[in-house]
Write a structure and sequence with these properties.
Layout: H1 3-13, E1 18-24, H2 30-42, E2 48-51, H3 62-73, H4 78-91, E3 96-99, H5 102-108, H6 110-120, E4 124-126, H7 132-144, E5 148-149, E6 151-153, H8 159-168, E7 173-176, H9 190-200, E8 207-210, H10 216-222, E9 228-231, H11 233-241, H12 246-265
Parallel strand pairs: 1-2, 1-9, 2-3, 3-4, 4-5, 6-7, 7-8, 8-9
Helix pairs in contact: 2-12, 4-6, 5-6, 10-12, 11-12
Length: about 270
């Protein structure tokens, strides 16, 4: 069991619901990015997922795609993210995960990626385009370096496969609430909640719901069946809406995060 997996399981065992915010690396600027991470930690996040900008995303919606494109224009890369991670970990005590497509990891080399991850204090990685069958060897090597790998389950995943995914998981289950790409959605139907409940009954790892979670009302519904939420596009939108005023970005993110934390804890 990885440290991340153990930490999240312990929080769930104690009855705490998990809040995992997503932010794009170096967006909107490197300096403000550091402040955003500290704000999220101070406002109730249990872990932070940092998206590594990639030129050809397959799971990101328009909001995150735009943030990634802006960061890429300013020179963001996987290697630069490792450099900044060392600085980040001085001020961030909660677990940090990288969300990266597999291509940048392959280009860097799995062994080098895992060595840099361990050296820099990375706790886990989310790779949306690495399926179960292709992930086994990477997962094994990652475990040896104490790097957790989140596992994806979607609304169309069959029961036998859900059990296999849970067995191989070394971090947490990332439940994709709907097919398609990331992005905020107004409501979750009873069918979605029922499906989350069904999947939750089949897995032993923490189950966190992402793709479309954007506010308190959704969180109140989801927390009855899941162990936590992952929120990305809604957070990037707050940054976008206040991008001309750095102080307002921080204030609004803190307010939003505290509301999510309160909804999870209430």
């Amino acid at each position: 069991m990885t440290d991340l997996q153990n930490q999240l399981k312990e929080k769930v065992y104690q009855g705490k619901k998990l809040f995992i915010p997503y932010v794009t690396f170096a967006y909107p600027s490197l300096r403000l990015f550091h402040d955003i991470l500290k704000t999220l930690q101070g406002s109730g996040a249990d872990a932070i997922e940092i998206g590594i900008p990639f030129s050809d995303p397959v799971a990101d919606g328009p909001t995150i795609q735009n943030a990634s494109a802006q960061s890429l224009k300013k020179g963001a890369s996987l290697q630069k993210a490792f450099v900044e991670l060392k600085k980040i970990k001085i001020n961030i005590s909660i677990p940090v995960l990288f969300m990266s497509y597999y291509n940048p990891i392959l280009a860097l080399g799995e062994e080098r990626f895992l060595k840099l991850s361990k050296d820099c204090g990375l706790n886990g990685v989310v790779i949306p385009d690495l399926p179960l069958e292709e992930a086994r060897f990477f997962t094994q090597k990652a475990k040896k370096n104490n790097i957790a790998l989140a596992s994806f389950i979607s609304p169309t995943t069959l029961k036998d496969r859900i059990r296999k995914i849970d067995k191989e998981c070394s971090g947490f289950i990332y439940y994709i609430s709907s097919t398609g790409v990331t992005g905020t959605r107004d409501i979750f139907s009873d069918n979605v909640i029922s499906r989350i409940k069904e999947v939750k009954s089949m897995v032993s790892n923490p189950l966190c719901v992402g793709f479309g979670v954007s506010g308190e009302s959704q969180v109140l519904g989801i927390k009855k069946t899941a162990d936590g939420v992952i929120i990305g596009s809604a957070i990037i939108k707050i940054i976008d809406q206040n991008i001309r005023d750095k102080n307002k970005v921080i204030r609004e993110l803190a307010l939003f995060s505290k509301k999510i934390r309160k909804a999870l804890d209430g």
